[in-house]
Amino acid sequence: MTGERDAELIDASKRIGPIARREMRLAYSMLFPTVAAVLFVVLIPVLANFWISVKPVELADLRAAKPLVRERASGDVAKAGDAYQIEYRVRSSSPKDPVFDVALTDKIPKGLNVVKIDPLCMTEAETIKCYLGTLEPKKRQSIKVTLSATPSYFESGADPPKDTKPLITGHAPNALTSLEFTFENFRKIFDASEFWEVLWVSMVYTVFGTGGALLLGLFAAQLLMTAFPGRAFLRGLFLFPYVSPVIAVAFTWIFLLDPFSGTMNAILQQTGVTSGPINFLGKRGVALWTVIAFEAWRYFPLAFLFILARMQSLSADLDEAAEMDGATPFQRFWYISLPQLVGILSTLFLLRFIWTFNKFDDIFLLTGGASGTRTLTVNVYEQAFALSNLGAGAAVAVLIFFMLSIFVFCYFWLAPKEEGM
């Protein structure tokens, strides 16, 4: 009987196998557009950032150099024999890149004859053709042509030369799309005197900002676990820093911490804590801890929500048993509740570490990266836009990517594993 049953199971598995495989292929085919769209949205910017990081590219290099021309026509032509003086002023659009094989063509209005022409030009079928060759950067080249009017010019009613638009062509290599690569951007980053200081500030800001947000969230969750009148209102109030627009809360902090008219300095001086005003956002050292406090205050509601939800799902049996055995509230929290919160705390630390390390707007709005608060993300902005060095800015962004990748790898290697995993 057992052998027959095993044979039946084997036959059933063989019958189900092809169906399962078809369903699997169908599921993959349905998921493929979504996966492809996500990869396109995520990978294309990442790969583009890597590409730009090994290019000596500035903002002016986003477009390849091209020749530009301005036409000036002078002369009062009222009768046959009068002449137009045409001048073409040619230059490169780039201040550092030459343009090759530059050629200019312009149509000669009917009834005008060329009486004098630049040696670089020739006439062909009522068209002026000029070959300028290589146009060096920052160099302007002038081409002059004289046109004489004939009686047929007035009879035909042709447009004056200034109404005809010259066509200019040429080509130049684009540093962004060329196959020339360099690690000069990375060398400049590591050779910069302030790099290691910026890296240290980034790590201090990230670690203490993340830790502060988690501690405040844990404290708030523990506080609001106990039932009391107004708890629902207080829970909603705790979400205010997170849901408020960052520009609103940032300028509120700037106003409150102003050394001359700020509320915080007024309170500290009137209570005798300080003898003079403190420039919280302008004094080196103090400014860094101020933006860390802002980071912890603004993002603790996220940790508060997750931790509170996890704490509400914990079994109360162990806590009640420990209370009956005489354990203090701190002992019950430390030895019973906290070990069960390690999973959610580690996940929150990972997410908040990545988000805080990539944070730009908070610091930029509060201090602009001054007074010792310049982080790597602020450095990306300054390199790419303030200094117009896109290559260096992309190189810093690549460095941030690798640092966060190492952190994520270490996290998954060292993070506590759930049972059964």
What's the arrangement of secondary structure elements?
Elements: H1 2-53, E1 67-74, E2 83-92, E3 99-107, E4 112-117, E5 121-123, E6 127-135, E7 141-149, H2 151-156, E8 167-171, H3 184-191, H4 195-223, H5 231-238, H6 240-243, H7 246-256, H8 263-270, H9 286-312, H10 317-324, H11 329-357, H12 361-366, H13 376-386, H14 390-414
Antiparallel strand pairs: 1-2, 2-7, 3-6, 3-8, 4-7, 5-6
Helix pairs in contact: 1-14, 3-14, 4-9, 4-11, 9-11, 10-11, 13-14
Describe this structure as you would to a colleague.
The protein has 14 helices and eight strands. The chain is of the alpha+beta class. A hairpin with a 3-residue loop joins strand 5 (121-123) and strand 6 (127-135). The two termini are 37 Å apart. The model has no long low-confidence stretch (mean pLDDT 84). The strands form two sheets. The chain has a four-stranded antiparallel beta sheet with strand order 1-2-7-4. It is elongated, with a radius of gyration of 36 Å.
